[in-house]
Amino acid sequence: MPQHLPDTLDSSLARGIAKAMIDGFNRHYRLFRAESARAKHRFETADWHGQQRGQRERIEFYDVRVRECVQRLEKEFKAESLPMEVWHEAKLHYIGLLVNHFQPELAETFFNSVTTKILHRTYFQNDFIFVRPAISTEYIQNDEPASRPTFHVYYPHSLAGLRPTVERIVADCNLQRPFAHLDADIDRITDVLHQTLHELKIRANFQIQALASLFYRNKGAYLVGKIINGYWEMPFALPFLHDESGKLVIDAVLLGEDDMNMLFSFSRAYFMAEMEIPSAYVQFLRSLMPRTHRGEIYNALGLAKQGKAIFYRDFLTHLRNSTDKFRIAPGIKGMVMLVFDLPSFPYVFKLIKDYYPPQKDTTREIIKSKYRLVRQHDRVGRMADTMEYSQVAFPRDRFEDELIEEIRKFAPSQLEISDRDGDGNEEVIIDHLYIERRMIPLNIYLQEAFDAGLDNPKAREQMEHSVIEYGNAIKDLVAANIFPGDMLWKNFGVTRHGKVVFYDYDEIEYLTDCNFRKVPKPRNEEEEMSGEIWYKVAPLDVFPETFGPFLLGNPAVRETFMRHHADLLDVAFWQQHKERIQQGHVYDVFPYDQERRFQPDPSYHNK
User: Fold this and answer.
1) Is 536 annotated as a binding residue?
2) According to the 3-state scheme, what is the secondary structure of 192-229?
3) Angle between helices 48-77 and 12-44 (to 10 degrees)
4) 358 and 461 together in one domain
5) Active-site residues: which are they?
6) Domain-located, residue 133
7) 98 and 194 share a domain?
8) Active-site positions, per UniProt (predicted)?
9) Residues facing residue 236 across a β-bridge
């Protein structure tokens, strides 16, 4: 139904509220953008710890600015006691302030974040918050002469023009650090592009588009763009790294949608990029990765609140257009988290249980802190990003009764069933939950291979890939200063790209906080024959040699694991990594396969 609009917008109070809220958002995005811009200098000066710190701190900016804005509204306008007509008019004034804004979608989400801190939930509707976007993000551009475009366009005209074009593209990055062998790198890039394009008939619109800002994450910077020829388009990215001498190198050429998906994966830390018009960046990136959810692209750019807002709108649309029911998620049930899903929707919903078995010495706040740790940490492509929501309402008739009983049994404090909105429809309201991309649990993926029989070549390949990827995942986590805690197969999942990712965070610890030990030798026969642990174990003690019995019961799995990852059972492996991290070393973790990297070739240096 259309909203009732006031005859006039003449409330100075509503106008003042709208102005205070847009001021709050503009301050937020100004600081967000400045912190993102500083990533370039940190990359150029190899300030890796500063880069990690900047990524962590930027995540907290949004909530701090929302709190500041709420406090201002309460202090200056007595916000909690205002009549609803004022809030309705304030929203309309706010829309007027967004007409020529460069980040209107982010500003709308900021408005929602502030008002939902002040208003009662029954007012979370079209009149008072942005349930749907009010301002289009299409065709936003800054026409000021000094403004930077979203992307640069280059015209090679022919394959012969590729090399000078690549040279211009790299020069336009304006990186203030010398390259180790730039001519050789450009030759390699040109060779790869020639191999990719050599069979194409060059059309009139042959061009290369490259986003104006590099994308910075940890120890890398990435130039992202696409090659266009006729109706054919090819996404590409160039990773810039530092070599051992501290000079810049271009490490690889990434090509195609799959490479882009790996680079912008939901299991990696957020990028830092200097963006005046974020929606234009998202639109460009979506053209490279059309199967990637728009909300996930916003997340990858560090705009997680916008990602959550888009995700939730799409989720509500999916609910309206589907009929299947939420159910207990397939797989082994967790001791700490209760997991449910909607079969037709590619995400899972996780809530913290109220009760845990004796071996789980934890609390709700400790578990929440583990999830915060993961959100703020470098996920190195091995930990799933998680969206956190509070007071989420679902239609009651979409829940299987078995799931309701499961929640009542294990998490009654998180469950409310009522018609809170007074619209005659009963709702299931979950107080606090996490939402993650659905993956195939690794134990189920392995079991599929066993069920097919390991004499089947595809089944054996699936098993071996799973085990090798599992070990690679743990080693990547170790390089990022993360000890997963519970390393059972069921706590890892397989993505659509076949990558193994960790997703159970309730026992996660910093590697540097753990004490890696060898199992002491028994002092007598009684200790040797004891079925119980007879030596003292502190809370953060870890005994790598004991992993085997829990993980490697299947002989084929054990043989593959020992062939590729036997070092994970050796205390020295863990201790050496811990010591290097304590000494300040930051490991390289690549969002692409090692074989994609340019290998040293002396012949290039003589070209």
Assistant:
1) no
2) HHHHHHCCCCCCCCCEEEEECCCEEECCEEEEEEEEEE
3) 170
4) no
5) 385
6) no
7) no
8) 385
9) 225, 255
- Are residues 369 and 302 part of one domain? no
Domain boundary among 394, 412, 438: 438
CA-wise closest residue to 544 among 527, 559, 528, 565: 565
Confirm or deny that 331 is annotated as ligand binding.
yes
Q: Which two tokens stand for residue 573?
A: 């492996």
Instruction: Indicate if 36 and 181 belong to the same structural domain.
Output: no
495's torsion region: left (phi>0), alpha (psi -120 to 50) or beta?
A: beta
Quickly count: other Cβ atoms within 10 Å of residue 375's Cβ. Answer: 20
Distance of alpha carbon 544 from alpha carbon 522, whole angstroms: 17
SS3 of the chain: helix, strand, coil, percent, to 5 = 45, 15, 35
Residue 50 labelled as part of a binding site: no
| Residue 551 covered by a domain | yes
Q: Which of 272, 297, 317 is the last residue of a domain?
A: 317
Q: What is the pLDDT of residue 412?
A: 95
Give the domain range for residue 384: 322-438
pLDDT of residue 333: 86
What confidence score (pLDDT) does residue 384 get?
86
Question: What values do phi and psi take at 155, rounded to 5?
Answer: -125, 95
Look at residues 373, 321, 363 and name the one whose alpha carbon lies nearest to residue 342: 321
Give the pLDDT score at 125.
56
Whole-number Å distance between alpha carbons of 421 and 403: 23
Q: Which of 3, 492, 590 is nearest to 239 (CA)?
A: 590
Please check whether residues 375 and 334 belong to one and the same domain: yes
How remote is the C-alpha of 406 from its chain's centroid? 29
Relative to beta strand 541-542, strand 515-516 is parallel
Tokens of 138: 């299409």
Same domain, residue pair 79 and 177: no
For 437-461, what is each residue's pLDDT tens digit?
999 999 999 999 999 999 999 999 9
Question: Which segments of the chain have a pLDDT < 70?
Answer: 1-10, 120-127, 527-531, 600-607
What does the pLDDT read at residue 2? 45
Provide the token pair at 258: 């799959």
* Together in a domain, 458 and 410: no
Query: Is there a binding annotation on residue 79?
Result: no
CA angle 186, 187, 188 (to 5 degrees): 90
In a domain, 236, yes or no: yes
Count of H helices and E strands in the chain? 18, 20
334 annotated to a ligand binding site: yes
